[in-house]
Amino acid sequence: MEERRKSPRYKCLFPAKLMKSGDKFKLIERLSIHDFSREGLKLIINFISLKPGSAIELELYVPETGLSISVSGEIAWSKG
C-alpha cells in the first residue's frame, strides 16, 4: 500500500500522560506513543475514547534522558 502521509513516521515506544481533554487539566490517563512524525503521532489509549476534533495536552517521557515534553494537539481520527 502506498504511503500517503506528508512526513515519514518513526516507530517508538514512549510512556505519556493525557493531561488535558477539553477544558479539564488533570491526569486523565496514562498511555503510550507508538510512532511519531512532524505532523502527528499514534496514541494507544485503553480506557477512554476521544472523538476527532478533541483538544488534548500530553506529557511525553523520553526514558533515555529522563526528560519530559509537554505538547498540545487535536485528535485527527480514532479507531473505535
UniProtKB/TrEMBL annotation:
InterPro entries: PilZ_domain (IPR009875)
GO molecular function: cyclic-di-GMP binding
SUPFAM superfamilies referenced in this protein's UniProt entry, alphabetically: PilZ domain-like (SSF141371)
Residue ranges constituting the PilZ domain according to the UniProt record: 3-79
The protein, known as: PilZ domain-containing protein
